[in-house]
Amino acid sequence: MSLGFFVFAPGFWDNEAVHVALAVGTAVAIVAGVVGVFTVMRGQSFAGESLGDIGTTGGSAAALVGAGPLAGFVAVDVLAAAAMELVGVQRVRGRDLATGIVLGAAIGLAAFFLYLDSTQGSGNGSTVTILFGSIFAISSATIPAVVGLAALAVTMIVVLYRPLLLATVSPEMAAARGIPVRLVGALYLLALALATALAAITIGTILSTALLIGPAAAALRLTRRPLRAMLGATAIGIGAVWLGILLAYDSYHWPPHEHGWPVSFFVVALVFLGYLASGLVEWRRERGA
Questions:
Q1: Distance CA 131, CA 108 (A)
Q2: What is the CB neighbour count within 10 angstroms for residue 1?
């Protein structure tokens, strides 16, 4: 009996839901790794967390009208990013204030929409899906939209890479060199909104920051070079998503039977373990130095 029999539960490679989950998860892990590195470097993890929570508003509104959650996540996160920019998120002292104001308003709306979803019976379990994700339930028709949005966000970061890096390291120097720091920051925030929305359909709005911040933070522990960190974060994210999908699928055959564990749990747990492992590598390297 081969090792694959014990690792891959029967039907894993033939299951269409698995194929869709792997495709979507890979695209999301790539964009999360690329955007996440700048999110950590710019100290805007709170903005990423807030956009994830704010996505609950879009997802619940979409469920209320019978639309797919991705459209709601993207629409509301992009609007929230624009609102943060208008309030002053690009000014260091105004970031938390702007983010907090927008977050508070959005969470209030999310609570209202989720209430309507549950009382009007239109949710059909959508609340759990919105908050914690359900990657096995994603339709194959969603793949082009996911890939397209991921490609857009990654392309924005690639095009903005040099001015964004300088504006991240030294906004004053970037401004002195004629770089439109406010515009660059606003475009980055748009890429962050797209990345957060995509992460939300994978592991839910509450946990989306884990995929956005965790791999990037781990990669930046291993290297200070942004490009290498992006590659490392992407590799960690893809590994966590793929292994999370495998474990979630296999868990349907664990006791109690036919009650598999959620993918989001495994992905977040694996990202956390990856972050701890990177800390151990960093500690051993510092001791060796």
A1: 15
A2: 5
Q: Which residues of 236-257 are buried (b: 16+ CB within 10 A; e: fewer)?
A: bbbebbbebbbbbbbbeeeeee
SS3 122: coil
User: Span 96-111, mean pLDDT?
Assistant: 73
H or E element in which residue 34 lies: helix 16-41
- Of all residues in the chain, the percent with pLDDT exceeding 70 is 89
| Identity of the amino acid at 270 | L
Terminal-residue alpha carbon distance, the chain? 47
Tokens of 108: 């209030």
Q: Residues 174, 196, 52, 79: is their CA dihedral positive or negative?
A: positive
Using alpha carbons only, how large is the chain's radius of gyration in Å? 19
- In 3D, which of 208, 155, 194, 207 has the Cα closest to residue 76? 194
Mean pLDDT, the chain, whole residue set: 85
SS3 95: helix
What the chain holds in terms of domains, given with CATH numbers, is 3-288 (1.10.3470.10)
pLDDT tens digits along 220-272: 999 989 999 999 999 999 999 999 999 998 888 777 666 778 899 999 999 99
Q: List the helix and strand counts (H, then E) for the chain.
A: 12, 0
Residue 7: CB atoms within 10 Å: 10
Structure tokens at 267: 């992905």
Spatial neighbors of 273 by CB under 8 A, at least 6 apart, are: none
pLDDT at 40: 94
- Report, as an integer, the average pLDDT of 102-126: 71
DSSP state of 8: S
